[in-house]
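Thread: Newbie trying to understand structure tokens

Hi all, I'm a second-year student working on a class project, and my supervisor (Dr. K.) asked me to get a predicted structure for one chain before our next meeting. I've only ever worked with sequences, so writing a 3D structure as a token string is new to me. If someone could post the tokens and maybe explain what I'm looking at, I'd be very grateful. Here's the chain:
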Amino acid sequence: MGTIMELARRGDSDERFRKIAETEGVTERFVRDGIASGRICMPCNPVHNPVPAAIGEGLSVKINANIGTSRDMPDIEPEIRKMDIALKYGADAIMDLSTGGDIDAIRKTLLSRCDRMMGSVPIYETGLTAARKNAIVELTEDDIFKGIEMHAKDGMDFMTVHCGITKETVRWIKKSDRLMDVVSRGGSFLTAWILHNDEENPLFRNYDYLLELARKYEFTLSLGDGFRPGCINDASDQAQISELMTLGHLVKRAREAGVQAMVEGPGHMKMDEIAANMKMQKTLCDGAPFYVLGPLVTDIAPGYDHITSAIGGAIAAQNGADFLCYVTPAEHLSLPDEEDVKQGVIASKIAAHAADLAKGRGKELDDRMARARKALDWDEMYDVCLDEETARRYRARGCTEEKDGCSMCGDLCAVKIVNQYLIKDIEDPDKKYQCD
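---
Reply by user tm_fold:
Sure, no problem. This is what the structure looks like when written as tokens:
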């Protein structure tokens, strides 16, 4: 039968393609051609078989929510609640980044309860096992690939793999004037491994074997940006761009093998650099779906990084990014709690929708809201808005009746006043008005 990409290249009809086309408001052929070219990906491991969804060119911007346990908080129950909250408020995908507790059991449980695309970073678990023995640099190639295969067998739809870190790109880190060097966990593992062993990255050296695994288990490669900038100072430097050039080459090899791939993008970046970075990625990686963390547009807002991320995410998505990884208020500070997850998802949804609007998608929702506001139709407003509970809570703060607007304007409600006199004018268009 072949892979999803090969199915699309044959021009075969598929129920999943049809469902995506219906959801996105495009033709099935548009979806099929996009997957065939590699400019759209449909992460779908048959073991998991999530609700059909796709990421890429010409489609709505998607968002991902990261969850997962840690050493200090290894209980799975809060993570299940976080996942449920993320899905409730519109996350299109979930990534399990667990590093505490029974990681294998946690992964399987979350997969069994999630009907959307799900991803992971297998080297986290592999590296954690090694770190407990103070031996990350002693990981073997078998350790790394066994971890990937285990996640694939369990049903992960996409996996972050840091294949673009090479001996050559590590030289740029050694030469650079970065303030924060490497902030990617997976990137740090492999950088340390390369420096200690003076050997090539196993994921790069054995990329053909990785492609074999991706074909066998039908998971999408999310080509990780191990040298993404971790602060404003480090953006758009030689290390970041050198890795991106390597990833462009790996995208081409994945397509030749019939394997779906997307590319991960920068973390921290000034607003004026974002558009150029998006264009560069799309050019170097031949239009591959682009998955960005933020970018965070300033480093000085701990506790509010869901906002700094949403600003950068909206600019990135307007200029070509296809998939936004949410950032929560707890970023850089702690493992997020349930409210943090909600705030992160809502912020990313706003960014994604704002970008979709700029590209001509989704305006019908804003028009519904505008009509509802004009009519002071609160139930309709609540139905359209991203977070009904919060909207209702704020509305309930005042004592103004619903037909009279809200407590901000009270008797001076602009909508109510103009509605009243527009109706009179329509009913008696010949009425003469006098100035007082």
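A couple of things are worth pointing out once you decode it. The domain at 61-358 is CATH 3.20.20.540 (TIM Barrel). Residues 338-358 form the longest helix (21 residues). Feel free to ask follow-ups in this thread.
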